[in-house]
Amino acid sequence: MANKIKDTDYLAISARIKAMETGLLTRERMEQILEARSDEEAVKILQECGYPELDARNPEAMDAALSAAREATLSDVLDGAPDPRYIDIFKLKYDYHNIKAVLKAAAMNTSPDSMLMDMGRVPAAVLKEAVQTGRLDELPEGLAAAAEEGKEILDSTRDPQLSDIALDRRCYQEMAAVAEKTGSAFLAGYVKIQIDAANLRSLVRTLRMGKSGEFLKTVLLEGGDIGADAVAAAGNSGALAELYGPTALQAAAEAGAEALRGGPLTAFEKLCDDAVGEYLAGAQFVPFGEAPLLGYLAARETEYTNIRILLMGRGAGLPADVIRSRLRAGYV
Predict the structure, then answer these.
(1) Which one of 10, 91, 129, 144 is separated from 287 by 20 to 30 angstroms, measured CA to CA?
(2) Boundaries of domain holding 106
(3) Is residue 53 part of a domain?
(4) Taking the mean position of all CA atoms in its chain, how far away is CA 245?
C-alpha cells in the first residue's frame, strides 16, 4: 500500500508556489493595462508578466495562447506535486465540456472541432474518437459513464439542455469524489463552494426565464453546503437573502435578487465567481500542504479570465470603469 501523502510532502512545491505567486497579475498591473494608451502598450505589460503577444482582434488565437500558458503552468507544477489528482481537478471540467460538444455536433451532423478544448485529462482528439465510435472503454470510467448517459438522454429526448444538465451533475459528482479520495478538506470545501455557486446561478437563471419549480429541481446539484431542497424552497419563497445571508455567497445572492427584479446579470455572475475566489484566497495563509497549490492554480484560472476581459473590453472600446466592474477578484 502506498504511503499516505502528508502536508509536509508539499514543503518543496509550497515554497515554489510562494515564489511563483509574485508573478501573478496584481490589481495594480491590471490598472496599468486598463489605463494603457494603446493596445500595444497593454500587451507589452502582459509580456513583461511572462505572457506571449496577445491580440484581442483575433480571439481564437488569443484563447489558444492563453490555453497554452495554462497547460505550461499545469505541467510546471505537476512535476513537484505529490498527488497529481490536485492537477486533474482543474482539467476535469474540460473533459465534460468536450463530451457536450461531441454529442451536440453529432446530433446536428456537424463537426465538433471548433468547440473542442484540448485542456482536459484526455486529449480532445482521443475523447472525440471514443465518443463518436462508441469505444467508451478507452475513457476513464466515470467519464465513460457520463458520456453514455448524456448520449442516451440526447437520443431519447433530442433536448441538449437535459443532456447538459446530466453531464454537469456527473462532473461535480466526479469532482467531489476526487476530493474525497484525496482526503483534502480544503479541496472538498472548494468543490462545495463551486456547487453552491452553481446552484445559486441556476436558481436565478431559472426564475428569470420563468421556468417552473419542478424544472429548477432537475438542475440543482447535491453536495454543497446549502442543500438543493433549501435552494428550491428559496426559489418558491424568494428568500434568497435569508438563505445565503450567513454564507460567502451573501453579496452574490443580493445581486441575484436584484437581477430578478430586472437588474443586470453581470454583477451577479461576477460576485458568484468572487465568492469562490474568496474561499481560495485563504490558501495564502497556509504555509504548506495542498492548499497553496490549489489556490495558486485557481488564481491562474481567474487571471486568464481577467486578461480576456481586459483585452476584449479594450478592443470593444468599453470605458475603463465598465471593464473594471467585470474583473474577477484577484488572489493578490
Answers:
(1) 91
(2) 88-183
(3) no
(4) 24
Global pTM reads 0.85
Q: What per-residue string of b and e applies to 79-115 under the rule 16 or more CB within 10 Å gives b?
A: eebebebbbbbbebbbbbbbbbbbbbbbeeeeebeee
**Within-domain flag for 62:** no
Q: Is residue 265 part of a domain?
A: no
List, for residues 15-63, the tens digit of each pLDDT value: 888 888 888 888 899 999 999 888 889 999 999 888 888 888 888 888 8
Cα–Cα–Cα angle for 260, 276, 24, rounded to 5 degrees: 125
> Structurally, how many domains does the chain consist of?
1
CATH code, domain with 95? 1.20.1690.10
Ramachandran category for residue 111: left, alpha or beta (phi over 0 → left; psi -120 to 50 → alpha): beta
Tell me if 148 is assigned to some domain: yes
List, for residues 252-278, the tens digit of each pLDDT value: 999 999 998 888 888 899 999 999 988
